[in-house]
Specification:
Order of helices and strands: HHHHEEH
Radius of gyration: 18 Å
Shape: elongated
Structural class: mainly alpha
Distance between the termini: 15 Å
Largest sheet: 2 strands, antiparallel
Strand content: 5-15%
Length: 139
């Protein structure tokens, strides 16, 4: 029942919302944002797509079952917590690694905090999409 203009505009909006959700995910530990709000923004892009094109086509565009996305995110978040145990620290203690570090330069900082945020992002994205697509298919 949607028009050609709405269908074409949603493709652009989905791309913009997904890019913005990744931006919010990556800036999360230094400024407001993070995995939760990034996942909500990413899910809203696919929800918009599902409203314009239907849930079957949204599942095709997603390519992975939303519950699989949520479960993989849960595993990634759990890995971020367990990683501290290998270093002898408490569960969920942040661990930092600097890629390309030399004696004069710090390098690129990577942390288990970012890995945890990616896990939260995937859990929120997958669970919201699973609920919304199931509700849309029910109607």
């Amino acid at each position: 029942m949607s028009s050609l203009i709405v269908r074409a505009a949603t493709r652009l909006m989905v791309a913009l919302l997904l890019m913005f959700s990744i931006y919010m995910l990556l800036r999360g530990h230094n400024e407001p944002g993070g995995g939760f709000i990034g996942g909500l923004i990413g899910a809203s892009g696919f929800v918009l797509y599902a409203m314009a094109h239907g849930s079957a086509e949204a599942r095709t565009a997603l390519r992975i079952d939303p519950l699989d996305i949520a479960m993989s995110g849960l595993g990634i978040a759990l890995f971020a917590g367990v990683a501290a145990l290998f270093d002898g620290d408490a569960f969920f203690t942040g661990q930092w690694m600097f890629l390309g570090a030399t004696e004069t330069e710090k390098g690129l900082p990577l942390s288990t905090v970012l890995i945890f945020d990616v896990g939260v992002y995937l859990v929120v994205l997958g669970s919201i999409l699973a609920m919304v697509l199931a509700l849309e298919e029910e109607v």
